[in-house]
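Input chain follows. Return structure tokens only.
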Amino acid sequence: MFKKIFSFFKSVKIEMSYVSWPTKDDIKEGTTVVILMSIFVAIFLSLVDTGFGFIIRKLLFKG
């Protein structure tokens, strides 16, 4: 049992050595893109929601 656990963690260590980790600049760039896209999508969805709300109010209340 312990031999399998030890073997598993040894395999994990070996596999982790193959990982290509991002640089700080890559992380900053990716974070910036995610934040800007989140803001863009939030603004877009709020405008669409406001527009649909306006249309629904005009259709249901006729004025």
